[in-house]
Specification:
The complex is a heterodimer. By secondary structure, chain A is of the alpha/beta class. Chain A is built from 14 helices and 16 strands. Chain B has 14 helices and two strands; from the N terminus they run αααααββααααααααα. Classes of the chains: A alpha/beta, B mainly alpha.
C-alpha cells in the first residue's frame, strides 16, 4: 500500500518536474512570449522568399548583412568579417559599421494567406520594427497595423491603401516606401536602345499590374528617347505569373528567337528563366531588383537595381536612433533608391568597349537630367503615349543611333536650357 | 529561310523543349490507371523527382546520377501510394491528394534545410544536350511508341490491361493482380519523377520552390483527354504545349500587352482545351476497374 502511494507520489513529482522543465524549455524557445533583446527587428518575406536573387534577397541583404552584419547559413547566423561587410556595401554608400542589433527574425510566406499571421507572429514576439517585403503584403499590413497601433512597420513597394483598397492613405505607424522604378528602367532602356545591334529589344513582365507597368513604361520611354525606331519594333510579353521559371524560359526564348538581342525582365522568379533563355540564345538580358550579374555574368548587361537594401537599412537605423517616422517615401534616381548595376555582359562581340563607354557616358548624362528634373519619366502607359523622343543635342548625347536624325526635332523657340520632355506633345 | 518555315521550326523547337515533362508524367498516369489504380499524385511525384534530381546532381556534380535519383524518388513516393491503396485498400484519390500535400511541404522543407533557400536551389549540372535537346526529350519521343507496343503487342501489356479491366478474371488466369498493380504504380512514379527531373536538370538547371507548378495535373488531364492510351496522352500533351506556343506567338504578333488583352490570351490554351473536350466524341472510357480496390478474398 505504502509502496503504491510512494509510487504515486513519485509520479506526481516526476510530472511536476517535467512541467517545470517544459516551462523552462518554453522560455528559451520561440513560441512563448519572452522579452527579446532590445532592437530586435522582424521581417516577413513574400512568396519569392529567400533566394529569389531579387527583391526579397535585397531586403534581406539590407537587414541581415548591412544592418545586423550577419550572414544566414543552414546552421543559423554567422557574423560577417569586416572585409566581407565592406564588400557588401553599394559603391555609393558611405562606409558604415553595422548596427548594434541582434540577429533578425525572418518569416517566409508561402502563400497570400500566410502574410497576416506572419506579421502578427512577429509582433507577438515583441519585435521593435516589422518589415513587410513586397506589394503583395499590403492588405496584411493594412489589417495588422490597424490592430496593433503601437507596432511599427516598414512596407516595401506599396503605399498603405484605404479599407476599400483603392486610395493610398498614410498611417502613423507605417513607413511605406515605394520606388520610382520607371526612372531606373528609363536608363536601362536608353542603354539598350544605344547598344542594340538588331534594332529589336524585348520586355518581359510578370503579371500586368500597375507596378510592372511602371517598369515597362520607363523602359520603353528610355528606348524611345535614344532610338525611336527600336521602340516601334519592341516586343513586349507578359508571363502571367511571378513564380514559374519555366514560363520565363519559354517567353524569353520566343523573344530571342524573334530577333531581340537585349531583353529587360521584371518578372520575379520567371525572370530567372528569362536569364536562362539569354544564356541559351547567347544574347543579352537586363536583370531587375538586385544586381543579377552573378546569375549569368556573360549575359547580364546590367540590372535595374532597386536599393531595397538601403531603404531597409535606413529604416532600421532611424528606428535605433529614435528617428523612425511613418508616412510615404518615394525613392528614385535622386535618392539613389533605384539605379543601374555596373555594366557587364560581354557576349555580343559586336558591342565593343568603345560603344559601351559611349553608351555609359550617355546614360550618365540622362541620369543627371532626370535627377535635375529636366526629364520626367512616364510611370504609366498613358504617360508613355505622351512621351516624345529626345533631341540628342539637348543632353549632349554622343552615341545615338542614326535613326534619331530622322526624327523631327521641334525645339521650342527660345529654349536655351533643356526642357522637360514629358510635357504633353501631340503625336 | 522563309519567315513561315522559321516560325514552324521555332514552334517545333519549343515543343521538343517544353512538352517532355508533361509527356513523361502523362505516360506515368496511363501506366498506373491502365492497371486500375487512380494516380492523382502525379504532381507530387514530379515534385519529388524534380527536387531529388537537382539535389543529387548538385551534390555529386553528375546530372546522370541526378536523373537516377529523380526516377527513384518518384518511384519511392509511388510505392507509398501503392502500399496505401493496394495493401491497405485506402481510397486512391485521397491517398494521391495526401501524397501531393506531403510533397508540397516536405520538399519545401528540404529545400530550406539543405540549400538554406526558400526560393531556388543553386544552379545544378544539366543533362547534356543531344541534337539541341536534353536526352529526356528523346526519351519522351520514343516512350509513347514503346508503351503502345507493350500494351498492344506483348503478354505483359495484355496482363496490365486485364488487371485494370477485370482483375478477378485476370486472377483466375493466374496473374498476380496486386503485384502487377504495384509494379505499374511504381513505374508510374518513376516516369513522373523523370518528368520532374526534366524540369529541374533538363530545362532549367536548378530547382525552384514552385515546381512543377501544376504540370502534374495537366498531365492527368492529358491522360484523360488522350483516352488512357499512351499515344493519345502524348498527343494531348503535344496539343497542350502547342496551344501555349501558339498563344505566345499570337500575343506577340498582335501586341496583346499593349491592348491590355494579355489575360485573355493567357487563357487561350485552356479555353481551347475545354472546347475540344466538349467537341470530342467517341468512346472516352476509363479502364473498368480504375480506382476500384482489389480484394483477393472478396467476390
Amino acid at each position: 500500500m505504502t509502496a503504491a502511494r510512494n509510487c504515486f507520489a513519485y509520479q506526481l513529482l516526476a510530472l511536476k518536474r517535467s512541467l517545470v522543465l517544459s516551462l523552462a524549455a518554453c522560455l528559451s524557445v520561440a513560441g512563448c512570449k519572452k522579452p527579446l533583446p532590445p532592437h530586435t527587428i522582424g521581417i516577413a518575406l513574400d512568396v519569392g522568399g529567400r533566394g529569389d536573387q531579387s527583391f526579397n534577397d535585397g531586403a534581406l541583404r539590407g537587414l541581415e548583412a548591412m544592418a545586423a552584419g550577419v550572414r544566414s547559413t543552414a546552421h543559423g547566423y554567422e557574423t560577417l568579417s569586416d572585409a566581407e561587410f565592406q564588400a557588401l556595401l553599394p559603391a555609393d554608400m558611405m562606409p558604415v559599421s553595422h548596427l548594434p542589433i541582434p540577429s533578425p527574425l525572418v518569416l517566409s510566406g508561402k502563400a497570400q494567406e500566410d502574410y497576416e499571421p506572419n506579421l502578427q507572429l512577429l509582433i507577438d514576439q515583441g519585435v521593435e520594427l516589422t518589415i513587410a517585403v513586397g506589394f503583395m503584403m499590403e492588405p496584411a499590413v493594412r489589417a495588422v497595423s490597424a490592430r496593433n497601433e503601437k507596432a511599427k512597420f516598414l512596407l516595401l513597394d506599396s503605399p498603405v491603401l484605404d479599407a476599400a483598397g483603392k486610395k493610398p492613405v498614410t498611417r502613423a505607424n507605417v513607413r511605406a516606401v515605394t520606388f520610382r522604378e520607371q526612372e531606373g528602367s528609363f536608363l536601362a532602356g536608353a542603354l539598350a536602345g544605344e547598344l542594340t545591334k538588331s534594332g529589336k529589344i524585348g520586355f518581359v513582365g510578370g503579371m500586368q499590374l500597375p507596378l510592372i507597368l511602371k517598369f515597362e513604361a520607363g523602359f520603353r520611354a528610355g528606348v524611345r528617347a535614344v532610338n525611336p525606331a527600336a521602340e516601334k519594333n519592341m516586343l513586349v510579353a507578359y508571363t502571367g505569373t511571378f513564380d514559374d521559371e519555366k514560363k520565363g524560359v519559354e517567353v524569353g526564348g520566343d523573344l530571342y528567337a524573334r530577333g531581340c538581342d537585349i531583353v529587360f525582365h521584371a518578372a520575379g522568379l520567371d525572370g530567372l528563366g528569362v536569364i536562362k533563355a539569354a544564356e541559351r540564345a547567347n544574347k543579352l538580358v537586363i536583370g531587375v531588383d538586385s544586381d543579377q550579374s552573378k546569375v549569368a555574368p556573360r549575359n547580364v548587361l546590367t540590372s535595374m537595381v532597386k536599393h531595397v537594401d538601403i531603404a531597409v537599412y535606413q529604416a532600421v537605423a532611424d528606428e535605433l536612433e529614435g528617428r523612425f517616422t511613418g508616412g510615404d517615401q518615394s525613392l528614385g534616381l535622386k535618392e539613389s533608391g533605384v539605379g543601374l548595376a555596373p555594366i557587364g555582359g560581354d557576349v555580343i562581340p559586336a558591342i565593343n568597349n568603345e560603344a559601351k563607354a559611349g553608351a555609359i557616358a550617355d546614360v550618365e548624362k540622362l541620369r543627371t537630367a532626370i535627377v535635375d528634373g529636366h526629364i520626367i519619366v512616364p510611370g504609366t502607359i498613358a504617360e508613355l503615349a505622351r512621351f516624345t523622343a529626345l533631341q540628342p543635342e539637348t543632353f549632349g548625347l554622343n552615341n545615338v543611333p542614326g535613326e534619331i536624325a530622322a526624327v523631327p526635332a521641334p525645339l521650342p523657340a527660345g529654349a536655351t536650357s533643356p526642357k522637360p520632355t514629358a510635357a504633353p506633345a501631340k503625336k | 529561310m522563309s519567315p513561315l518555315a522559321q516560325t514552324l521550326l521555332d514552334a517545333l523547337h519549343a515543343l521538343l523543349e517544353f512538352a517532355p515533362p508533361l509527356v513523361l508524367a502523362a505516360l506515368g498516369g496511363v501506366l498506373s490507371e491502365k492497371s486500375g489504380v487512380v494516380n492523382i499524385g502525379l504532381e507530387g511525384m514530379m515534385r519529388f523527382g524534380a527536387f531529388f534530381a537537382a539535389a543529387v546532381a548538385i551534390g555529386t556534380g553528375n546530372p546522370w546520377l541526378g536523373l537516377v535519383a529523380g526516377a527513384l524518388a518518384g518511384a519511392t513516393s509511388a510505392a507509398l501510394h501503392a502500399l496505401l491503396s493496394l495493401r491497405y485498400r485506402a481510397d486512391q484519390v485521397v491517398s494521391g491528394i495526401a501524397l501531393n500535400l506531403v510533397a508540397m511541404s516536405l520538399v519545401t522543407f528540404l529545400l530550406e534545410a539543405i540549400f538554406g533557400s526558400a526560393g531556388v536551389s543553386p544552379p545544378s549540372p544539366q543533362l547534356p544536350r543531344i541534337f539541341g535537346h536534353s536526352a529526356l526529350t528523346w526519351l519522351a519521343v520514343v516512350l509513347p511508341l514503346a508503351m503502345h507496343w507493350i500494351f498492344t503487342r506483348t503478354a505483359l501489356g495484355l496482363r496490365i490491361r486485364a488487371v485494370g479491366e477485370h482483375p478477378r478474371a485476370a486472377a483466375t488466369a493466374g496473374v498476380s493482380v496486386l503485384k502487377l498493380r504495384a509494379l505499374c504504380v511504381i513505374g508510374s512514379g518513376a516516369l513522373a519523377g523523370l518528368g520532374g527531373a526534366t524540369l529541374s536538370i533538363g530545362i532549367l538547371g536548378q530547382f525552384d520552390v514552385r515546381m512543377p507548378a501544376g504540370q502534374g495535373f495537366m498531365a492527368l488531364a492529358a491522360m484523360i483527354f488522350g483516352k488512357w492510351t499512351p499515344l493519345g496522352a502524348a498527343a494531348a500533351c503535344v496539343f497542350f504545349a502547342l496551344a501555349e506556343v501558339v498563344q505566345r506567338s499570337l500575343s506577340l504578333t498582335f501586341h496583346a500587352a499593349d491592348l491590355h488583352l494579355e489575360g485573355l490570351f493567357l487563357a487561350l490554351p485552356y479555353a481551347l482545351t475545354l472546347l475540344l473536350l466538349a467537341l470530342s466524341r467517341g468512346r472516352t472510357r476509363a479502364p473498368a476497374a480504375d480506382g476500384v480496390p482489389y480484394d483477393p478474398e472478396g467476390r
